[in-house]
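To the wet lab folks,

You asked to see what we're planning to order before we commit. Fair enough. Below is the target structure as tokens, and below that is the sequence we designed to fit it. If anything looks off to you, flag it before the synthesis order goes out.
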């Protein structure tokens, strides 16, 4: 459930600690999806609150909004599949948290956004699991 690391760190960590890759991936998927509804529901309200509090929080909110804006074109152009792609690519700055933030700021419909994020998380989990187990080797 930790932003930035998400399942990209959870699956390899679980496997390194002796969990089978299937269970590591399953736990990571569930943990990755838990915060999504809360981010979708409350992101805009929290960002507005942060912008009104102090300079530090205002700066942090601006960075989060900028992150969402950087991904706006991809999501607006491809809609559902753009959000899936944003979440599915297992790189820093992508993932369920970012997808939910972008969807919330773009005012995407909650159920549809959640489905897109879930599909993206499944794809990312498959990719990270294959890399972790050596099915896919990155050179």
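Sequence we intend to order:
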């Amino acid at each position: 459930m930790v932003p930035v690391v998400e399942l990209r760190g959870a699956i390899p960590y679980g496997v390194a600690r002796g969990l089978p890759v299937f269970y590591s991936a399953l736990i990571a998927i569930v943990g990755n999806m838990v915060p999504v509804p809360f981010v979708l529901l409350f992101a805009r309200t929290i960002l507005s609150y942060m912008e009104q509090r102090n300079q530090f929080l205002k700066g942090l909110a601006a960075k989060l909004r900028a992150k969402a804006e950087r991904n706006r074109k991809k999501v607006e152009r491809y809609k559902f599949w753009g959000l899936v792609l944003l979440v599915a690519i297992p790189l820093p700055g992508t993932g369920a948290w970012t997808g939910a933030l972008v969807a919330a700021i773009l005012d995407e419909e909650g159920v549809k956004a959640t489905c897109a994020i879930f599909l993206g998380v499944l794809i990312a989990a498959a990719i990270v699991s294959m890399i972790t187990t050596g099915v896919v080797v990155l050179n």
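Structural context that might help your review: Helices lie at 6-16, 21-33, 36-53, 55-70, 72-78, 80-88, 96-105, 110-133. The chain has a mean pLDDT of 88.

Thanks,
Computational group
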